[in-house]
């Protein structure tokens, strides 16, 4: 996830600070640790996506609603669902996992910031009826038969931080549970799914 504006979280093996289960798993073959990191990555993506539905950051603080959400009564950050659907993870050479979004606007939605728009010209499309009346609603260019050009002055858009990435207390418990299950499976030479 190295595109400009992308954002991700990393969880890597640190035998000094990691739970004992993760540190001991490092002694097992790569396929065992890769399976664990895949499971953790999938769980963290699912947890991140749940925050979009629940509209809060990892510590449970509600996001500041967007102007569009307030106007339409819908949810913030999921008008079209692109940011939500873009959440993914990558296993880092069996030594860790990263998750987040590669979208160019992912980081500013996570951390907040200011977007500066330069002054520009913009077309507005409307439709003139067969009776010669100019409609008062904007339409798509393909549906228009009347275009006007307008100068738009420079302006700034201020976006508040709406953190969706992070590790909540519940996520920490999930990570430790997954690591422990994979360690037990490795010790018993069985699959993690057989450990209850």
Task: Summarize this structure as a short list of keywords or feature phrases.
alpha+beta, three-stranded antiparallel sheet, 6 helices, 7 strands
Description of the molecule:
The structure is a single chain. The chain has two domains: 7-114 and 158-194, no CATH class; 119-153, no CATH class. The model has no long low-confidence stretch (mean pLDDT 86). The chain is α+β, with helices and mostly antiparallel strands and 196 residues long. The chain contains six helices and seven strands, in the order βααααββαββββα. 34% of the residues lie in helices and 20% in strands. Helix 2 runs antiparallel to helix 6. The strands form three sheets. The protein has a three-stranded antiparallel β-sheet with strand order 1-3-2. 19% of the residues are buried.
Number of helices: 6
- In percent, how much strand structure appears in the residues? 15-25%
Tell me roughly what share of residues is in helical segments: 25-40%
Oligomer class: single chain
- In the predicted model, the low-confidence regions spanning at least 5 consecutive residues are none
Total count of domains = 2
CA-atom Rg in angstroms: 24 Å
User: What is the element string, with H for helices and E for strands?
Assistant: EHHHHEEHEEEEH
Question: Helix/strand-derived class?
Answer: alpha+beta
Outline the biggest β-sheet.
Answer: 3 strands, antiparallel
Physical arrangement of strands within the biggest beta sheet: 1-3-2
Distance between the amino and carboxyl termini: 34 Å
Shape: elongated
* Overall number of strands: 7
């Amino acid at each position: 996830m190295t595109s400009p504006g992308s954002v991700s979280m990393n969880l890597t093996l640190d035998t000094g600070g990691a739970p004992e289960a993760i540190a001991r798993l490092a002694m097992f073959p790569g396929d065992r640790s890769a399976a664990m990191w895949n499971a953790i990555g999938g769980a963290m993506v699912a947890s991140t996506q749940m925050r979009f539905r629940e509209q809060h950051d990892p510590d449970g603080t509600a996001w500041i609603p967007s102007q569009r959400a307030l106007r339409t009564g819908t949810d913030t950050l999921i008008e079209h669902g692109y940011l939500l659907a873009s959440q993914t993870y990558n296993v880092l050479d069996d030594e860790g996992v990263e998750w987040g979004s590669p979208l160019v606007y992912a980081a500013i939605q996570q951390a907040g910031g200011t977007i500066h728009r330069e002054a520009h010209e913009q077309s507005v499309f409307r439709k003139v009826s067969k009776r010669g009346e100019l409609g008062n609603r904007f339409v798509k260019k393909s549906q228009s038969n009347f275009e006007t050009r307008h100068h738009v002055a420079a302006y700034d858009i201020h976006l508040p931080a709406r953190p969706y990435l992070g590790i909540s207390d519940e996520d920490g418990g999930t990570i430790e549970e997954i690591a422990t299950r994979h360690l037990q499976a490795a010790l018993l030479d069985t699959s993690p799914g057989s450990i209850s």
